[in-house]
Amino acid sequence: MLRRSRLLSLSFSTITLALLSAVAGCGEPTPNTTGGAQGGAGGTGGTGGEGGQGGGGQGGQGGQGGQGGQGGQGGGQGGQGGMAGCTIGTTQTCYFGPDGTEGVGACKAGVQTCEPNGAWGACVDEVLPAAVETCNGADDDCNGAVDDNPSCVCQPGEMMDCYDGPQGTAGVGVCVMGKATCAPDGQSYGACQGQVMPSAEVCNMLDDDCDGTVDDGIGCACTPNTTETCYTGPNNTAGVGVCKAGTHTCLPDGTAYGACMGEVLPSVDNCASPADEDCSGAALACTGNHIASKGLGDASNQIGTDVAVDAQGNVYVIGNLEGTIDFGGAIGALTSAGSTDVLVAKYDPTGTVLWAKKYGNASTQIGNGIAVDGAGNVYVTGAFQGAISFGGANVTSAGGDDLYVAKLDTTGGHVWTKTLGNTVTQQGTDVGVDAQGSVYVTGHFSGDLPFVGVIANQGGFDVLLLKYSSTGNPVWGKGFGGTGTQYGYEIAVTPVGQVTLVGAFQESANFGGAAPLTSAGDYDIVVAQYDQAGGHLWSKGFGDASEQRGLAVAVDPTDGDVVVTGELAGSVSFDGGNTTLTSADGTGNVDGFLAKFDSAGNHAWSKRFGSTGAQRGKGLAIDIFGNIVITGEFFGQIDLGGGVVPSAGGRDAFVGKLNPNGGSLWLKRYGSGMLTSQAGEAVAVDPLTNIWVTGSFESVIDFGGGPFTSAGGIDMFLAKLLP
Q1: Residue 394 and residue 399: Cα distance in Å, rounded?
Q2: What's the pLDDT score for residue 673?
Q3: What contacts 262, CB < 8 A, 6 or more positions away?
Q4: What number is the average pLDDT over the span 98-106?
Q5: Is residue 472's pLDDT more than 80?
Q6: How many angstroms separate the CA atoms of 588 and 606, rounded?
Q7: What's the mean pLDDT when you consider all of the chain?
Q8: CA-based diameter of the chain, in Å?
Q9: What is the pLDDT of residue 540?
Q10: Which parts of 403-493 fold into alpha helices (H)?
């Protein structure tokens, strides 16, 4: 609908007159330099006359409804035509919506203004019916009904009570209703906010499941947040030794007490401490007394070369077998295939054999090192000629002695075997494993070796350091050598894969540092440490013109301190010359030594043990308290600081224990009183700090449980001693 203020109608005669006047004005005007006279008034409905050309006067006033005449052109302004449609600047109401909608619902009229051309402008501020009714509480389509769109549920922003829980639970216990807010489009309500619905009952003195009963049916163990004394150790140990009760607090849900805080439970007794850590009623003394022992062999030679213990206290031994060893029972007798075979055996914590296996053929095979991982898998290394099988396919030497490393499972079953060799000599002397199951091997080699790339030999024997993955894949390999001969004897591997190596070197040899180490004369001691990637951390050489060798190494599990033992002739200083250790025989027979370094290789303390005759340390272990256990062999006498212990006549085995500062706790020798040879080759400590030692003996040996007599040649022994 169009609605305007009063509109005039024009007669036919008036229109005709206007047209004629317009045509007449189209002729060429006569110049007028003084301005034209005022045009006459237009007739009713007609068009005003045009002013003359020149300084034209004002056009005449148009008649009612007509158009005013135009003023003359030239110096003056032509006359203004009369207003045909509206008076400029006037306004009127307007509305262009459907009939019957103006003023209904949201619809309303607007305003028009007469523009300079005499025509009405746009209708401003009018509101016309919307095409679709929206849910906003208004009549948008102006049909007289508010929000009559079927999709409208609510007015945007309005709120209502809501509750999604089971009927009858709102207002019971902790349950309360919430509020839901209408969505901006009015077509739905949002989520119910603030409501609390039934939940599982907890011990909090509230009715959580809103059934009208507090803390029902859940077996509350205690009042939330209350505290009482507690003790989780064995009966009758609280208040004994270091053991004491603690306190625990009831959990907020009341279902149980939390951890017992502040209690002290029994732990492994440190014999070097006066405290009763295992809360047995008496502190453990450091004695080294006998627990169990075995002598194994026949008229040929058998030697135990290394020993390891797992987390359950089981013990693993590797050695060299000639002839026969009878283990009895289901295992029975194991006999070498010809020359020397590798022997591996597992015993339980009481010393009962669980399994034993031998590996070799008619050629010579030797076992030098053994290690066990956290899962009880066993790793062995050594050297072999000919062919050998550890339960898998036979592997064959490339010519001379080849290095092997093999992995066995906890029952002795074969997992994998790797060999490394060429036509000359390679030997694995020790093996270790980290917490990730990566395997590390040291030894010595001649000739170049293919590994990860080529490990180049620099002449003579060089030190070898290898890393394998848990599946036996080569990871990295290092050769350390120079102008002389070098040997790697033993390694200690930490759980994170840090490797400390000991050995001996001649002349000049580079162990990965910025500069090579230089021997002072004969063989010198080398101690070197590497990270899990084979990166050099530190290396040091110690010696003089005589012979010195590092034969065994152990790393303190608590602080990473390094302890080394071996043999020395002449003199050696481990602290840069402040303290010098000199063999009792000068440059003749060797004495044993012990030296301790911190984790960065700095000297802590060192000592020599020995007299005339030869003495050497051959095996080391460190317990969880940092106490040091050493084994080896000696003629004459030795003294670790607690008094002189003489040999029984020949070469005797010894086992000694020292505290972390090097103070002697005890020292024991094992020999026959005859001119025979006994030697402790390796030592390990179990989780209770009991000591396992293996080695060899001739004639008779007694660890305190009764004598064992050799069957003829050299027999192997295994003994378990108290801390």
Answers
A1: 15
A2: 77
A3: 244, 246, 247
A4: 92
A5: yes
A6: 21
A7: 88
A8: 163
A9: 98
A10: none
46: pLDDT strictly greater than 60? no
CA-based angle 648:650:655, to the nearest 5? Answer: 60
SS (H, E, C) 127-147: ECCCCCCCCCCCCCCCCCCCC
How many angstroms separate the first and last alpha carbons of the chain?
A: 113
Comparing C-alpha atoms, which of 238, 114, 254, 134 is closest to residue 186?
A: 134
CA–CA separation, 177 and 168 (whole Å): 11
* Closest listed residue to residue 501, CA positions, set 566, 590, 407: 566
Residue 261 DSSP code: B
Q: Enumerate the β-bridge partners of residue 294.
A: 718
Taking the C-alpha atoms of residue 572 and residue 593, their distance in angstroms, rounded to an integer, is 10
Nearest to 351 by CA among 296, 395, 305, 406: 296
CA 452 vs CA 424, 473, 477, 479: distances in Å: 19, 10, 7, 12
Question: Average pLDDT of 656-678?
Answer: 94
Task: Give the Å distances, CA to CA, from 3 to 92, 141, 271, 617.
Answer: 10, 20, 114, 121
Backbone φ and ψ of 385, nearest 5°:
-115, 160
Amino acid at 463: V
Segment (H or E) for 480: strand 474-480
Degrees, nearest 5: CA angle 368-372-376: 140
Q: Convert 318-380 into a string of H (helix), E (strand) and C (coil).
A: EEEECCEEECCCCCCEEECCCCCEEEEEEECCCCCEEEEEEECCCCCEEEEEEEECCCCCEEE
Q: How far apart are alpha carbons 17 and 635 in whole angstroms? A: 154
Q: What is the pTM (predicted TM-score) of this model?
A: 0.72
- Determine the pLDDT at residue 137: 83
Q: Name residues whose C-beta falls within 8 Å of residue 81's C-beta, 6 or more positions apart in sequence.
A: 47, 48, 59, 62, 67, 68, 69, 70
Domain boundaries, the chain: 1-7+66-71+84-148
Structure token digits, residue 343: 């022997």
Tell me the backbone φ, ψ of residue 641, rounded to 5 degrees: 120, -10
Task: For residues 443 and 458, give the distance between their C-alpha atoms in angstroms, rounded to a whole number.
Answer: 15
Residue 586: pLDDT over 70: yes
The type of residue at 542 is F
Q: In the predicted model, is pLDDT for residue 361 greater than 60?
A: yes
In three-state secondary structure terms, 678 is strand
- Phi-psi region for residue 371, left (φ > 0), alpha (ψ -120 to 50) or beta? beta
39 or 110: whose pLDDT is higher? 110
Q: How far lies 273's CA from each of 131, 270, 285, 722, in Å? A: 95, 5, 8, 15
Q: Does pLDDT of 479 surpass 90?
A: yes
DSSP structural state of residue 107 = -
Mean pLDDT of 339-345: 97
Q: Which three-class secondary structure state does DSSP give residue 18? A: helix
Bridge partners (DSSP) listed for residue 402: 384
DSSP per position, 66-90: SBPPPPPSSSBPPPPPP-SS--TT-
* DSSP letter, residue 125: S
Instruction: Report how far residue 240's alpha carbon sits from residue 246's, in angstroms, rounded to the nearest whole number.
Output: 14
Burial classification of residue 470, based on how many CB atoms lie within 10 Å of its CB (0-12 exposed, 13-18 middle, 19 or more buried) = middle
**DSSP state for residue 245 in the 8-state scheme:** -
Residue 438 reports pLDDT greater than 50: yes
Using only C-alpha atoms, the chain has a radius of gyration, in whole angstroms, of: 53
Phi, psi of 654 (to 5 degrees): -140, 155
- pLDDT of 76 over the 50 cut: no
Element (H, E) at 17: helix 12-24
- Give the pLDDT band of residue 430 (cuts 50, 70, 90): very high
